[in-house]
Amino acid sequence: MKKDFYEILGISKGADAAEIKKAYRKSALKYHPDKNPGDKEAEEKFKLAAEAYEVLSDPAKRAKYDQYGHQQFTYKSKIDPGRNCQWSGEKSKGKT
């Protein structure tokens, strides 16, 4: 099971946009692949932070996440690698 996006960024569910951005930037700098070459764990944490930020920084996506959790946000590319990475809650702009 995926870790909670709020936990990934180390913020509370009541965090505002500025707190979310600050927490993401701190995490991104800490785990960036250029600062941790060859460290697969740091690379994974970097990707998780980016995913968490993408959802929590968008008010509509955040509301869906708060209501439905991770089920609403699964990359389609994991199902079909030929598709663009679109959230399952959005219309696909990739091939059909």
UniProtKB/TrEMBL annotation:
SMART domains named among the record's database cross-references: DnaJ
Entry's InterPro entries?
A: DnaJ_domain, DnaJ_domain_CS, J_dom_sf
Give start and end of each J domain: 4-69
Entries under Pfam families matching the protein: DnaJ
Provide one Gene Ontology cellular component: cytoplasm
Top-level taxon of the source organism? Eukaryota
Q: Please list the coiled coil stretches.
A: none
- MF annotations from Gene Ontology: protein folding chaperone; protein-folding chaperone binding; unfolded protein binding
The identity of this protein, by name, is J domain-containing protein
Q: Which organism is it from?
A: Hucho hucho (huchen)
